[in-house]
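User: Could you check the structure of this?
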Amino acid sequence: MNNNQGADYSNYVVYGPDANCTLASVGGALSSTSEGDSNSAVNVSIAGLSFQVFVILVFIALTLEYVYRYRKGQRVTPRTTPLSRGFKTFSIFMTISITLILIRCIYRIDELSEGYTGPLIRNEGLFIALEGVMVLVAVYTLIIAHPGPVFADLDGDKIVQEPSRAHDSEK
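Assistant: Sure, the predicted structure tokens are below.
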């Protein structure tokens, strides 16, 4: 891949999840109107979840490609400033979050593979562990290592926020 594909990466990261959310929404809508007995609804939901797994795997591949190119570039032209501790922490927590969401999606595909009558869909403990807990922990990992402070200013300078207009009008 060439160096001018940053916009393509951004488009993929934005529009890929939109497409799988659309599929999941259609599957959910079909399920709710069919009282849970529609194979079409299950198939559309599985397609949405499968596409989400595909999007996540491509995101992981793009991220690994970036890391590879960064390290290769480091060998050719060493940078004087190493990656910040905040960026490394964010990267570790982002990896955890992505892994948890991937596990959740794979579980949901397996759960729906037998429709609404399979044994996995009736196992509440497994559902709580592999759906609720995975999402909850994934969210909290990115609360703990929020990307805002890491990417707000990569030069290490503090960003000065301008006061709000409401605050200015009170003076």
